[in-house]
Amino acid sequence: MAKKVSKDYFGLSWIVSLILAIIPVTSWLCGAITRFQEGKIVAGILRLVLGWNIIWILDIVFMIVNHRIMRLLNV
């Protein structure tokens, strides 16, 4: 069976997600909303508080390498 891989940022393609990750404000909002949609409340709150600095840079790197945003906390 093939494992279903969810795409980040509302199921958009990774190139669109990469463009959204490059823009700081959209990366901050989309990252938090994505984590809340996954049911990860604590991770969503942390993204709202800390998502504008180092997490933004790491999201860009992870989006290029893994085609997914960084999952720092899986709670």
Distance between the termini: 27 Å
Class derived from helix and strand content:
mainly alpha
Query: Largest sheet at a glance?
Result: none
Give the C-alpha Rg.
11 Å
Helix and strand pattern: HHHHH
What's the pLDDT, averaged over the residues?
A: 83
Describe the protein.
The chain is 67% helix and 0% strand. By secondary structure, it is mostly helical. Helix 2 runs antiparallel to helix 5 (54-66). The longest helix is centred in the middle third of the chain and has 14 residues, at 24-37. The chain is globular and about 25 Å long. The termini are far apart. The mean pLDDT is 83.
Write the layout of secondary structure elements.
Elements: H1 8-11, H2 14-22, H3 24-37, H4 41-50, H5 54-66
Helix pairs in contact: 2-5, 3-4
Keywords:
globular, mainly alpha, single chain, 67% helix, 5 helices, 75 residues
In short:
This protein has 75 residues and is mainly α. The protein is built from 5 helices and no strands. The protein has helices at 8-11, 14-22, 24-37, 41-50, 54-66.
